[in-house]
Structures are given as structure tokens and as C-alpha cells.
Amino acid sequence: MTIKPDTQQKTSSRMSLPEHITEIKDFLTNAGLPDIIDSAVILGSGLGSFGDHIEDPISIPYTDIPSFPDSTVIGHSGSLIFGSVDRSSVLAFSGRFHHYEGHPISKTVLPIQLSKAFEVDKLIISNAAGGINLRYKVGDLMIIDSIIKQFFMISEPADKNWSYDMEESAAKVKEIASDLGIVTQMGTYLFAKGPSYESKAEIRAFRYMGGDAVGMSTAPELAEAGRLGLRAAAVSLITNAAAGVVDQKLDHAEVKEAADQKKEVFAKLVKGLIREF
Ligand code: HPA
After folding, report:
1. What is the pLDDT of residues 30-50, one digit of tens each?
2. Does the beta carbon of 189 sit less than 6 angstroms from any atom of ligand 1?
3. CA–CA separation, 208 vs 188, rounded Å?
4. Which residue out of 1, 39, 40, 45 is catalytically annotated?
5. What's the pTM value of the predicted model, to 2 decimals?
6. What is the CATH number of the domain that holds 129?
7. What is the Rg, in whole angstroms, of the alpha carbon atoms belonging to the chain?
């Protein structure tokens, strides 16, 4: 995602981060984290094992961090892991705060705001998503080149002077993936509120709207990254066909299984992005 922040917004006081973000950063720097970090990675459902690739890790459970909400979903361990990958400093969020767990959208974007506070240069966002596009198969990696974010509001009503364009960064992610021999799809991520999976009719409607994959995270995070002028790459792992695409009931075990099978390729791509994005 190449973000084209509005120059007016750059100097606006609305760009300032919530106060609790400064408190969290202070807590973390006291725990040994540096003031500036090269990359931040948000690990989607079942993709937390990327944490094992981080060298000299400092791992802090979310529950130990003041002002951090709890993340409760199965498959999310809920900890912050700081360390290095190929000599580059990395902050990994293993576990997110979903709106469907009861967190307001403004809290779900905490990892983005914290990334901004650490002045990260590269933000890498991943998620598990249902495939709406009929050409997608379970296990495909979809680079997000656009989002449909009509179902939530991220900025304050008057804070509308920002825009972003993800296509340039999606092309860069595609190039990095190709160089590593990783085959990817590229498409639009549509945010659904959850907590239940979608109905068949909703998926039909989402397909008409232009969604290629559906999930319950990421779009608010990308919108916030756009608002804050952070460069972001985003990748969905297609863990299941969305409702009605195949005649099969959806469950979370399927999401975990698909993520497990793809974890090495996913780790290779994330490492490539840390190096070159
Ligand atoms: N719908 C919404 N969120 C998801 C899905 C889905 O089918 N799969 C993984 N996350």
C-alpha cells in the first residue's frame, strides 16, 4: 500500500496518537525495546508461528502490557515479540484485537498506532480470510491491493483529508514474492463485522461489490495506516472458501489447518518483505 497522505493532514493535530500509546511505548522501552524499530508485523489467525523465526526475542504477553486489551480468539497467543530478522529489528503482534470480540474499531487499530509511535518503516499485515473470488483455492496467498471499508468509521467525522492508494505497494509485494518463487493472487479485501461467518447471500452481494476475500480484521488497520501515513504491505491467506462457494460448513478448525500447512511459505514471504519491502 503506497500511502499518499494529504499534506494538510500531516501537520494536523488529529494525526497525534492517543495518550495511552505513549504510555505503552514508555512501558516497552523500559522493558528493553529501542526507540525506533525497522518493521512491524501483525500475524493473522494461525500464523503466529512466524514468531519462531524472530532471533533474540523479547516476548511480552499482552496481558502484562498496560492499556492493552485482551485478545481471546483460539489460535491467537496474544503476545508482543520484539527481536530481529536478518539483522533488522522487528516488532511482531501475535494476536489481534477484533471488533467482533467487543473491541471498538478505535482499539482494533492499536498495533498500527504503536507501530507509528516506534516510527516503523515497514508495516506488514497478515490475516486469514475466506475466498469470495471463485478462482481462489484454499491455501492461496492474496496480496491486498484494495479494501472495501464501508462498514466502519475510522477517523473522526471531520477528519476526512486523507487518501491512500495501495496498488503501488501491492505491486512491490508481488515482485518480492515472485523473486522468492512464491505464487500469489492479488485482490480486494472486504471487511465483515462478524462474529459469525457470512451468509451465502452476503457473499454473493460482496462478490458483486468487488470483494475477492472476506475477513474480520485488516481493513480498519490499513485505513489507520493510511491516515497515519505508514507504508503497509498486506497479505491474506485464503483459509476457506467463503460461505456458499462450496457446499460445506465453515469452522475455525479449517482456518487453523490451512494456516498450518502454509506457515513455511508465509514465513519466507514475510522475511522477504522485512528485507526488501
Ligand atoms: N469469513 C470471514 N472471516 C474469515 C473467513 C470467512 O470466511 N475465513 C477466515 N476469516
Report:
1. 999 999 999 999 998 888 889
2. no
3. 12
4. 45
5. 0.90
6. 3.40.50.1580
7. 17
